[in-house]
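Tokens for chain A. Residues wanted.
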């Protein structure tokens, strides 16, 4: 972006403001959740002259100046004025400054002889990293996703299918012909959408796109809470990507990080020469594990900032949901701290009461303004009622990641088959609490980084068994109660651990084993979407029924999934050993033919083709007219999904 050194723009006018008295009242009260329309930089026209209105919250500043390319980065020529209402807001209108102008705030603190240049916390756009200035920007865009927006309440409903493809935009696919550069938002719009649509996923979850100085943080060390990273393009480019996904029936969920922020000088830390956004006491305000700062949730202006950020993405970018990162670190004062390194709450407990209050208010604000979206908690503890309404005592999230299911299942699946029978309860335990929350079953990026290896690398056995085990894992995931989330690359069995500096191993798809796994995930997604029994009752005990969870000796598991119409059901049987089980009997409550609608061992998935020739017949059991026996051939390390055939009604011929 070219620097505009041709002339100095007009002097600052202090008689122009976007704030009303009511705005200030809500701001001080902690209930102004559209601050992105007031604070920051906004192109307006005052008395017939277009320019930019700047507004900044810096209550402990002695002076605040706007410095940028329009004034040759002068730190004294364009001073903002403090409002006279004790809000701590500085504002001013500079005529002649236009979109694309690059700027920072030069803050002179009242304390410690401290001055600093800060980026705009409410900026809509930022310079390309490693540059750190804010960019004045309009968010004009002509959306074409009205069809999606009008029906997304059905797409995002708790009884709708939700199969999420988790993506890191910088490493999903690179452009090797052009020095391995990032794909931009508009390129990703087409290639990523087409792929996700073909694979049958319902939603994409983007790892944080909010501007972040350190690329290696994957976006989880955010500084731009209102700006999509410029690494992949402009705000309008990002809007186009979301718009295109919506036009193709794909929902978009954003990772959002209200739990901590980095210490970069241009960011939020020590903003006006005081601990403004963070706690002053490091026992509350510094995160020892991530070397970052923790928001002060007790401060109304900070709550305004964070909730405004959440609503901003739903408002300006049509986002369909936010996944809130690291909720456990917010809930507990002693998270990642040893004894003596934390301060108990007023009752002597380890719960962060201010964070709990903030989380509840966040969810109330989101669902009040956008009842057709979802908030999703990454919460790894046994905190009760995370996904229950606040008026019932819950935290108010729509859904919660089921970290217990993930840990137990991966631990079980990584064991050699000979030992699995001794750990059968690691599979069955999750069902006993499966309906206490609205769970998402995540196999996320966290499981394939930091030396943990790729998902397929966790599977035991030779190459064939590893692939069969991974197909079995995915089959178990898609049939288990709960929504689904799968990290990119896992769907085709990438062998290498995920690396944010490299593209996924798309060349692996030259091999039949990876093609088969990818096709299996594609077919699972389409089956999951098309069969109400697999998604309608995800969060109800009535949608699940065990057939047999006791056969630990053979490591076989079987259950039924039901739709709201209980006559619509599926029978699902798993064999977690590499030994085929021929003529294996299970009991069902309906007679007749059962179609084998999916078999993970089919040769099209690179399996050994052990199966049931497409269908089996349920025979009545002697002495019991309400129970029937099905005899199955269970494939090695495989899952079969059966659906009862509906009886065809005879048509009555009309008499002529």
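Reply:
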């Amino acid at each position: 972006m070219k620097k505009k050194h041709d002339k100095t723009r007009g002097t600052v006018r202090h008689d122009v403001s976007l704030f009303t008295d009511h705005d200030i009242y809500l701001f001080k009260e902690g209930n102004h959740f559209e601050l992105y329309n007031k604070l920051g930089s906004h192109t307006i026209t005052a008395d017939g002259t277009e320019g930019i209105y700047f507004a900044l919250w810096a209550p402990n500043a002695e002076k605040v100046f706007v410095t940028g390319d329009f004034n040759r980065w002068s730190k004294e020529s364009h001073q903002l004025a403090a409002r006279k209402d004790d809000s701590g807001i500085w504002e001013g209108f500079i005529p002649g400054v236009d979109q694309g102008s690059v700027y920072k705030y030069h803050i002179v603190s009242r304390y410690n002889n401290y001055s600093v240049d800060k980026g705009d916390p409410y900026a809509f756009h930022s310079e390309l990293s490693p540059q750190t200035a804010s960019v004045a920007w309009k968010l004009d865009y002509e959306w074409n996703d009205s069809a999606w927006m009008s029906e997304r309440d059905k797409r995002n409903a708790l009884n709708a299918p939700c199969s999420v493809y988790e993506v890191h935009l910088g490493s999903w696919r690179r452009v090797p012909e052009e020095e391995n550069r990032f794909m931009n938002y508009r390129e990703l719009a087409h290639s990523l959408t087409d792929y996700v649509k073909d694979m049958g996923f319902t939603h994409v979850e983007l790892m944080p796109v909010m501007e972040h100085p350190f690329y290696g943080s994957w976006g989880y060390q955010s500084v731009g809470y209102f700006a999509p990273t410029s690494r992949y393009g402009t705000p309008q480019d990002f809007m186009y990507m979301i718009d295109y996904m919506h036009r193709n029936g794909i929902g978009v969920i954003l990772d959002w990080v209200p739990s901590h922020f980095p210490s970069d000088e241009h960011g939020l830390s020590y903003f006006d020469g005081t601990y403004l956004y963070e706690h002053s006491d490091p026992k509350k305000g510094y995160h020892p594990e991530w070397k970052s700062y923790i928001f002060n949730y007790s401060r109304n202006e900070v709550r305004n900032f964070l909730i405004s950020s959440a609503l901003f993405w739903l408002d300006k970018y049509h986002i369909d949901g936010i996944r809130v990162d690291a909720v456990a670190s917010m809930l507990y004062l002693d998270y990642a701290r040893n004894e003596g390194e934390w301060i108990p709450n007023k009752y002597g407990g380890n719960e962060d009461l201010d964070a709990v209050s903030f989380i509840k208010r966040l969810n109330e604000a989101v669902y009040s303004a956008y009842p057709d979206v979802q908030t999703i908690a990454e919460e790894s503890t046994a905190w009760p009622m995370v996904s229950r309404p606040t008026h019932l005592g819950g935290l108010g999230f729509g859904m919660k990641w089921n970290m217990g299911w993930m840990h137990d299942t991966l631990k079980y699946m990584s064991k050699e088959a000979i030992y699995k029978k001794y750990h059968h309860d690691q599979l069955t335990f999750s069902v006993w609490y499966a309906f206490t929350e609205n769970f998402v079953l995540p196999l996320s990026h966290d499981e394939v980084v930091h030396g943990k290896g790729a998902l397929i690398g966790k599977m035991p056995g030779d190459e064939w068994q590893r692939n069969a085990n991974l197909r079995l894992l995915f089959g178990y995931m898609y049939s288990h109660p709960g929504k689904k989330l799968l990290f990119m690359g896992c769907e085709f069995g990438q062998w290498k651990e995920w690396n944010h500096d490299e593209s996924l191993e798309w060349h692996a798809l030259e091999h039949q084993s990876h093609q088969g796994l990818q096709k299996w995930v594609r077919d699972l997604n389409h089956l999951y979407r098309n069969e109400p029994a697999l998604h309608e009752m995800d969060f109800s005990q009535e949608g699940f029924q065990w057939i047999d969870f006791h056969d630990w000796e053979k490591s076989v598991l079987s259950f039924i999934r039901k739709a709201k119409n209980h006559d619509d059901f599926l029978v699902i049987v798993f064999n977690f050993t590499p030994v085929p089980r021929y003529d294996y009997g299970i009991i069902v409550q309906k007679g007749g033919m059962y179609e084998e609608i999916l078999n993970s061992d089919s040769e099209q998935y690179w399996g050994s083709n052990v199966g049931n020739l497409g269908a089996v017949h349920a025979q009545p059991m002697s002495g019991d007219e309400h129970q029937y026996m099905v005899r199955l051939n269970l494939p090695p390390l495989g899952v079969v999904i059966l659906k009862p055939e509906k009886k065809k009604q005879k048509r009555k011929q009309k008499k002529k």
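The chain has 14 helices and 31 strands. The longest helix spans residues 512-530.
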